[in-house]
Structures are given as structure tokens and as C-alpha cells.
Design a protein that fits this description.
InterPro entries: Frizzled_dom_sf
Oligomer: single chain
Shape: globular
Strand content: 5-15%
Helix content: 40-55%
Number of strands: 4
Protein name: FZ domain-containing protein
Strand order of the largest sheet: 1-2
Low-confidence stretches: 129-134
Organism: Ostreococcus mediterraneus
Distance between the termini: 29 Å
Number of helices: 4
Largest sheet: 2 strands, antiparallel
Structural class: alpha+beta
Length: 138
């Protein structure tokens, strides 16, 4: 807590596997800046929309610093929670206004393992920047 700049809203135990958290935080800020430049070109009507910027920054931080859940039996073991499908879809849709573009983007995230498949109530996932749900319908 308190060591991040751009992702300062991360207030949960995060699974960080490689780089120090501050390095990852700077990387997310750079990716966010690149994304907002691309958005300005592709979706000028949504460029600079404060709701979109907030939603996308929270989503990008949640993916970079995924929530860790402790094992109910062994508190020394943690499991990384992926983002829920709906969380991905709603976040991308908020900044594109295009459901098909959001599905393509979330399918790519699904393939890389950072988003849980839709309709899987057996998988715990992050449903919002601070919420936890299942991969079933939320």
C-alpha cells in the first residue's frame, strides 16, 4: 500500500511475479498513455471521456496487479484471480462503444489467461476493481 503511483487504487493483496511493483506501475501508465492515443484516433467521440479513462485505468491496473486469494486450508498458498469476462467486456465497451470490438479484445485476453471464460461459476474472478465474483453470470 502506498508504493504505487498510477495504480494507487490497488488496495488488495496482489500476485506480482516478476518486476518490482513500482516498475510495473510505470509500465501500466505507459500502456495507458499509448491506449488513450490510439483511442483518440479510433474513437474520437470517446477520447478524453473521464468515465472511460477511469474505467480503463482501473481495469488495466486490476490486470497488472491481479488479486490473490489465500488457500482456505494453507494460508501460505495464494491463487491469482483472473478478471471476469463481464468485467473485461464492460470495461472495453465503455471506451469503444462497440460490442464487437470489446468481444475481440476480451477473447484475446481470454486466450492469454488474464480473463476467465464466461459461464464458469466454478472459477472465482475479479468482477470490478475491488469486487470478486464467479465467471458465471454476474
Amino acid at each position: 500500500a502506498g508504493e504505487l503511483g498510477f495504480c494507487s487504487g490497488v488496495a488488495w493483496d496482489a500476485c506480482v511475479h516478476t518486476d518490482p511493483p513500482l516498475t510495473l506501475d510505470k509500465r501500466v501508465l505507459n500502456m495507458f498513455d499509448t491506449l488513450t492515443l490510439a483511442q483518440t484516433a479510433m474513437y474520437p467521440e470517446l477520447a478524453g471521456d473521464p468515465d472511460c479513462l477511469l474505467i480503463m485505468s482501473e481495469y488495466m491496473c486490476a490486470l497488472t496487479f491481479p488479486r490473490c486469494d489465500p488457500d482456505p486450508i494453507d494460508p501460505l498458498i495464494y491463487y491469482e484471480l483472473p478478471a471476469c469476462w463481464d468485467y473485461c467486456l464492460n470495461s472495453v465497451y465503455a471506451c469503444t462503444g462497440d460490442y464487437d470490438v470489446a468481444k475481440v479484445s476480451c477473447n484475446a485476453s481470454l486466450a492469454s489467461g488474464v480473463v476467465a471464460p464466461e459461464g464458469r461459476p466454478d472459477i472465482r474472478c475479479t468482477s470490478a476493481a475491488e469486487g470478486v465474483g464467479t465467471a458465471g453470470r454476474l
